[in-house]
Amino acid sequence: MTTTVDTGTTYREAVREAMRDAMRRDERVFLMGEDVGRYGGGFGVSLGLLEEFGEERVRDAPLSESAFVGAGIGAALGGMRPIVEVMTVNFVMLALDQIVNTAAALLHMSGGQFAVPVVIRMTTGGGRQLAAQHSHSLENWFAHVPGLRVLAPATIADARGMLWPALLDPDPVIIVEHGSLYNAKGPAPDTSLAVDISRAAVRRTGDDVTVVTHGGSLGLVEEAAERLAADGIGVEVIDLRVLRPLDDATVNESVRRTHRAVVVDEGWRTGGLSAEVAARIAETCFYDLDAPVGRVCAAEVPIPYARHLEEAALPSAARVVAAVHEAVDRRG
Q1: Closest Cα to residue 125, out of 310, 327, 312, 332?
Q2: SS3 state at 321
Q3: Closest CA to 81 of 150, 164, 146
């Protein structure tokens, strides 16, 4: 029997329902993190779960990311299925040792004896005037690490449907949720449909250029695609969804048809996810390209607090439109 989400659900509610459904399905699942209990989470995602499941399964943790992420890893090794919430990706730096040196490496270092089935959720991204220590997009750090699976749900359906298969994964899974999406509202997802956490999704079809993105940038890419359609340019929009392992097949199949590609990533350009995706396209589809792979990324600065500066630093639909025109106007 599936759990339904009310019509007109928000992204926040979809994540909450995903956790509620998982906790009802499997008593080994529990939630742990800062303020996830009585306060309902830093972004209100876990409101009501404490009242339903109690303090044993909705655990407020002390303000020590290293401690509670490590406790989650230990619980996973002990047979539990923990969901560990880190308030923002900036704070997860304090737990990188636990994630990279322990969770990601333990299966390999134990010769396959110890799996670590922990799910670590965190908020990422800017656009909310929360200044540099709460606004960066650092998910590419985790996408760099073997032993991790990294998911970036950009839609309400994926926010609802990715958690359960992530909990079934024997390896550690990082789920990054863009903070600007929590209030996004849309139709209730069909919970009877399984979400594939190994494949990218084609969100819009087009014949002139492939635009590859993920997470909070999907909306501005779709807005740009609408504007470009008015100019007679057909944009194929690919939502990576899975940042590790990357789904090269879906991206390459599209680029081989459109012959042009632009990668949009809210992370920084230097050493970022956009560089990896662009390099893979160039390695595999070089002779199919009619223009260099374009990139739209955040400015190489700590994300500013002032709204006009923050907007200037982050990718925008206008910048995507300009990058697509540059690619398409360079006729073969």
Answers
A1: 310
A2: helix
A3: 164
Side-by-side strand order, sheet with 149-151: 58-60, 29-33, 81-86, 119-124, 173-178, 149-151, 242-244
Count of domains observed in the chain: 2
User: How many CB atoms within 10 Å of residue 102?
Assistant: 19
| Radius of gyration for the chain, computed over Cα atoms and rounded to the nearest angstrom | 20
Is the residue at 263 inside a domain? yes
Which residues span the domain enclosing 179?
Answer: 9-186
Query: Which of these is catalytic: 13, 34, 134, 178?
Result: 134
In this structure, are 131 and 228 located in the same domain? no
Read off the pTM: 0.94
Q: Does residue 16 sit in the same domain as residue 154?
A: yes
* pLDDT attached to residue 138: 95
Distance CA 258, CA 235 (A): 9
Alpha-carbon distance of 242 to 325, in angstroms, equals: 27
- Choosing from 145, 161, 186, the residue where a domain stops is 186
Residue 284 lies in a domain: yes
Length of the chain: 332
From its phi and psi, is residue 48 left (phi > 0), alpha (psi between -120 and 50) or beta?
Answer: left
Residue 192 lies in a domain: no
Instruction: Determine whether 236 is an active site residue.
Output: no
- Is 65 annotated in the active site? yes
Helix ranges, the chain (H): 11-25, 49-53, 65-77, 96, 106-109, 139-143, 156-161, 163-168, 218-230, 248-258, 273-285, 307-313, 317-329
d(CA 318, CA 199): 28
How far apart are alpha carbons 143 and 135 in whole angstroms?
A: 18
pLDDT digits (tens, 9 = 90+) for 14-70: 999 999 999 999 999 999 999 999 999 999 999 999 999 999 999 999 999 999 999
Taking only the tens place, the pLDDT of each residue in 299-332 is 999 999 999 999 999 999 999 999 999 999 876 5
Q: Considering the candidates 13, 65, 139, 222, report the single residue annotated as catalytic.
A: 65
- Residue 2 is predicted with a pLDDT of 45
